[in-house]
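Issue 218. Parser rejects a valid record. Input:
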Amino acid sequence: PNRYSSGIPKLDDILNGGFKRGQYIMIEASFEVSEEMLMLILRPIILNFIQNDGVVFITPPGGETPESIYSDLSRFLPEGILEEHVRFVDYFRASPGNPLVIPMTDRSSQKLYRTELEELTQGYSRPLMDLVGLDTLEYRMGTTATPQDLLRTRVFIRSRGYLGISIARPDLSLAGAVANFSDIVFKYRLIDNTPLFYGVKPPTGVMVPTIDREGGLPVVTLKELL
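Output the parser choked on:
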């Protein structure tokens, strides 16, 4: 397919069928947006990608760990599926202790990363989503190295027709640079205790994400404000 469904029908409609292959997306979430609110949007995107035989590499944003995200996603998938489709990139631990975690603490980490990437994508033949918490990268790699690393990832994603998603918070110094090279930029705010999700690149209407009344989690409805 030329596009990857977001798993959120309203979002797919806005994007004319979903994310284009090779696109890079940034979601900037304000400080008031909790991890659970963030997962409301990310969860269906990740799960839908997995259910379409995609592979997802996740660098958890601040406030999340590989274990917390695994625990969340595993509620909605048959046993063993995450092991076949997901790896967590962790910059804070030296040894994995968990077969799904790739510790990125020394030079040998890059070799392990490439090995896992090639094996899971079956020689790069399966779709890949690279989901990155920018605050984690900036904290571990600094503001100089990180944009260069992300640009290399951006080129790799575009050339292979994969999908890249970065999660930013407003105070990150590299949020502006990443927004510039992103194809799509969404903002996620909490105003008067109401979550608001909208696109600025391209611009969209303001939407309120809610759990679908009939389907329940992980199904999400985006209701556009008049």
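Fixed in the parser; the record now loads. The chain is about 35% helix and 25% strand.
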